[in-house]
Amino acid sequence: MLSSTARFGAAVAAVLVIGVVGFSLIMSKAPPIGGVGASPTPSPITTGLPTSGGPALCLPANLAARIVSWDGAAGSRTASVVLKNTGTEACITNAVDRPQLVGGDGTVLIDGAAAAGPAAITLGAGQTVTSLVQDGNYCNDIPTAPITLAFVLSNGGGRVVATPLSSTDTSGLPPCNGAGSAATIDMHFWAP
Fold first, then answer.
1. What is d(CA 81, CA 69) in angstroms, rounded to the nearest whole number?
2. What is the spatial distance between Cα 188 and Cα 59, in angstroms, rounded to a whole number?
3. What is the DSSP secondary structure assignment for residue 8, as one 8-state letter?
4. Is there a contact between 41 and 92 (Cβ–Cβ < 8 Å)?
5. Residue 29: phi, psi to the nearest 5?
6. For the segment 103-155, what is each residue's pLDDT rounded down to a tens digit?
7. What is the pLDDT of residue 118?
8. Which has more confidence, 173 or 29?
9. Alpha-carbon distance 132 to 4, whole Å?
């Protein structure tokens, strides 16, 4: 028979092992917003601008974005977004664009930072990619519905405004967590 001290020690060791394994699993499934750390590898990857004879830059007229869902947690909102090449030919865009939270009247509510990194993706005709966009700490007046997202194309081609969940949706508007703090918006890489 084990003494009570040995049983207690074994129980503490088991709890520590379970905690470390659980923490490792959670962290491996939750990459940070903004593309830091391991990033998905869109297919195919190119670097820089298109060369002669290759696909042209994606333009807003050939792209359509739509919000699939909004989720909320700890004072922020996270959107799942789909971007589709609606054109008849392949085109090239950056793997990360500058996200914006936009009101129904077109007002930019939160403006993201310019994308970092030169990675670009080639979107075939009809191909879709997805991303997660997280916003937080909106402390201004209540905007006009619907709340949606826009993406300023890092390739210099313009801006794509996503179709909102509905014509009255405001679920993407994050709460004010402190007027002294700046509003934030970041996105993951576009990925197949």
1. 7
2. 20
3. H
4. no
5. -100, 0
6. 999 999 999 998 776 688 999 999 999 999 999 999 999 999 999 999 998 87
7. 63
8. 173
9. 50
| Whether pTM exceeds 0.85 | no
For residue 191 the two structure tokens come to 């990925």
Q: Which residue has the tokens 């470390």?
A: 20
The closest alpha carbon to 170, from 128, 126, 130, 138, belongs to 138
Nearest alpha carbon to residue 136 among 53, 54, 66, 73 = 73
Phi, psi values for residue 149, rounded to 5°? -120, 150
- The single-letter DSSP state of residue 164 is P
Handedness of CA 36, 152, 184, 174 (dihedral sign): negative
Residue type, 126: G
H-helix or E-strand spanning residue 110: strand 108-111
3-state SS, 25-44, equals HHHHHCCCCCCCCCCCCCCC
Which 3 state secondary structure label does DSSP give 60? helix
